[in-house]
Each structure stands twice: as C-alpha cells, then as structure tokens.
C-alpha cells in the first residue's frame, strides 16, 4: 500500500532504492550471524575476578566518558583467554556494523562479498595488531544496534566497536574504554521537509530511532518533559539504525534522529536528505567490553592513547581517510578531549 509520503519521495531515487534493498538484505544476514551463538573459545572471566573499578563507575556516573580504567600493557585473564585460542580460532572476536557508510560497511567494489571497511574497522585492526600481533587476526560479527549489549554479556564477542555511545545506563551492563570519537544527536530529514531541527517544527512529524539507542532515550525523556511538541510521534523504533534511513526513503517516517556522525554519512549516500539543525547533545563513542574484563579495558585504553598520538597511521589519518568527506576537513569538533580515568585509590 502506498503510504501518505511515498508518492512524493520516490521520484528520482534510482539507485538509492536498490541500495535500500541491498541494505535490508544485509541486515537480515547480520541478524542471522548475531543469533548464531557464541563461538568456541569466547573469552570467559574466572569466578571471583575483581570488578572494583566497574562497581565504582556505577556508583558515581556524572561523567560517563570518564568512568574507565587507566591504560596498561599488561596481560590478564581476558587477554590470555584470547591469546590461548587454538589455530584458526586465535582471533579477536568483535561486534561491528556492516551497513554504516564510512564507519563499518562492505565496499561493493572491493571484490566478492565486499571488504569490511571504515573508521571503526581500522580501529579494530589496530587493537588486533597490538594484542595478537596480526592486524587481520579478527573475526568480525555483524551486530544490530539493539544487540550490542546482549552480544557482549553472552560472550559472543570480546568487544563491540560500533559507533556506541558511552552513557550511564549502559555502564550498568558493560565496561567502556575511554572515548575515541565525539558526536551528538541530530535530525535527518528530506531536503524538502518543513523540519528545521530539533525544535517546534517536529510537531505532527513521525520520527524513527533505533531500539535501545541514545536517540530514543533522549526523545522519550524530552517528550515526557514537554521539551518536544506533544504531537511529535516517536513510536517508530527499529532493531538497526539503518532501517530508519530505509523507512525515511520509503516515506514511512518524516525524520530520523541519530548520531550526527552517522547521519552525515547517510546524507552522503542519499542526496535527497540532509542534516537539519545543529547537534543537540554531546556524546562520545567508546569500545564496549564485559564489565569484569579489566585487563582488556586497560589494554584498549593504552591502544587508544597510541592511536591518537600516532602521526603516520593514527586517529587523524583514519578521520581524513573515512570521515573528512562527510564531516569536513577540520577534525577538531570530532576529536574527544584528553582522556580521564578512574582513580586507582
């Protein structure tokens, strides 16, 4: 059945419609991978492992991006379990996205099946090289937005590197590294839309967000507090954030709210949509791991320090390669502040 918006928006889509179909198929494939269960050899923590720092992070969460452990190069039980995997299974198991353009996506022009590429993927290779001595010693697992935390808790992955915002609610369930990217929530809508940003122009508009996303949490809180027009419809949620773009393309929703860094990449894929207004939150992406994986958290934080300081193959190079075309050449707005860590005392 043709929706109330579909006829107006289908004109001129051409290859974008095909892209949407391909993305939908990829999402089905990702969900199958996620539901396949934990691979043999997934890192497990021994009983009684100290979680003192994680517990303290839960107690006081004024600044969630600072609730992480100081860097260290030392191996511990989590890293040893990863290193002790045998044969072909001796890989870092990482939950990623395969549909977020320039973050984690399959390049259709890179051969059969498409090579997984993007900013997050470069970071994963960097972590694997440090821990296992081989940047390609990675088993990638495509994880939908709403399965990131369950995949970590169930031990299906060692970590998730998937444009995942650090916040206090999530710190109750997983541990995070220090921030590796700064962003904020923004509105994405058709260029012809009357929506101007996160304001009164969202009245009578249907907004799509991903289930379990910080975007939905923000919209729900603002709706209850009267900061959004009463007529704004926020009921549409989907398992994977990219599903929102597909629904927007099909005219089933009026706008999408998501991280500005992701929305900019989506706008680059589709010339009929654009970011509306400025970011209305300040958020940070982090690498998510099990709460008791202290040694792995510390090692990742050490790797992130090196990644940011590296002038030949580091954070700035990854930004220039993958994100400058969509976020602009000036990386200063996206680079997180110097990391702060929990006190050892």
Span from first to last CA?
62 Å
Query: What share of the residues does DSSP label as strand, in percent?
Result: 15-25%
Estimated radius of gyration = 20 Å
Q: From N to C, what is the helix and strand string?
A: HHHHEEEEHEHEHEEEEHEHEHEEEHHH
Structure overview:
A five-stranded mixed sheet has the order 5-1-6-15-7. A five-stranded mixed sheet has the order 11-10-12-9-13, with helices on both faces. The radius of gyration is 20 Å and the shape is globular. Helix 5 crosses helix 11. With 345 residues, the chain is of the alpha/beta class. It has helices at 6-10, 15-35, 52-59, 77-83, 119-132, 148-153, 168-171, 214-224, 241-249, 260-269, 294-309, 315-322, 324-327, and strands at residues 92-96, 99-100, 104-107, 115-117, 138-142, 159-160, 175-176, 181-183, 185-190, 206-210, 233-238, 255-259, 273-276, 283-285, 288-289. 36% of the residues lie in helices and 17% in strands. Residues 1-53 have low confidence and may be disordered.
Give the topology, please.
Elements: H1 6-10, H2 15-35, H3 52-59, H4 77-83, E1 92-96, E2 99-100, E3 104-107, E4 115-117, H5 119-132, E5 138-142, H6 148-153, E6 159-160, H7 168-171, E7 175-176, E8 181-183, E9 185-190, E10 206-210, H8 214-224, E11 233-238, H9 241-249, E12 255-259, H10 260-269, E13 273-276, E14 283-285, E15 288-289, H11 294-309, H12 315-322, H13 324-327
Parallel strand pairs: 1-5, 1-6, 10-11, 10-12
Antiparallel strand pairs: 2-3, 3-4, 6-15, 7-15, 8-14, 9-12, 9-13
Helix pairs in contact: 2-9, 5-11
Offer a quick outline of the entry.
By secondary structure, the protein is α/β, with parallel strands linked by helices.
């Amino acid at each position: 059945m043709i929706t109330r918006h579909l006829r107006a928006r289908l004109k001129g889509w051409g290859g974008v419609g095909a892209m949407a179909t391909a993305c939908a198929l990829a999402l089905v494939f990702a969900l199958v991978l996620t539901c396949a269960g934990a691979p043999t050899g997934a890192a497990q923590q021994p009983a009684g492992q100290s979680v003192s720092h994680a517990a303290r992070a839960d107690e006081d969460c004024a600044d969630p991006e600072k609730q992480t452990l100081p860097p260290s190069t030392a191996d511990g039980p989590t890293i040893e379990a990863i290193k002790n995997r045998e044969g072909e299974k001796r890989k870092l198991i990482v939950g990623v996205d395969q549909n977020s353009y320039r973050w984690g996506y399959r390049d259709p022009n890179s051969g059969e099946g498409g090579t997984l590429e993007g900013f997050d993927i470069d970071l994963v290779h960097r972590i694997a090289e440090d821990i296992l001595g081989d940047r390609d010693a990675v088993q990638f697992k495509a994880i939908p937005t709403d399965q990131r935390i369950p995949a970590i808790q169930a031990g299906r992955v060692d970590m998730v590197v998937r444009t995942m915002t650090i916040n206090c609610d999530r710190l109750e369930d997983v541990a995070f590294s220090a921030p590796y990217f700064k962003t904020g929530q923004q509105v994405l809508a058709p260029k012809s839309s009357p929506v101007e940003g996160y304001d009164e122009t969202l009245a009578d508009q249907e907004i799509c967000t991903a289930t379990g996303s910080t975007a939905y949490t923000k919209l729900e809180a603002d709706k209850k507090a009267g900061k959004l027009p009463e007529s704004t419809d926020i009921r549409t949620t989907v398992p994977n954030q990219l599903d929102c773009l597909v629904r927007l393309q099909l005219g089933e929703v009026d706008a999408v709210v998501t991280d500005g860094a992701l929305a900019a990449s989506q706008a680059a894929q589709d010339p009929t949509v654009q970011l509306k207004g400025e970011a209305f939150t300040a958020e940070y992406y982090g690498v998510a791991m099990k709460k008791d994986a202290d040694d792995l958290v510390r090692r990742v934080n050490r790797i992130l320090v090196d990644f940011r300081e590296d002038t030949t193959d580091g954070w700035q190079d990854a930004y220039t390669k993958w994100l400058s075309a969509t976020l602009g050449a000036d990386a200063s707005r996206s680079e997180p502040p110097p990391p702060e860590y929990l006190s050892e005392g």
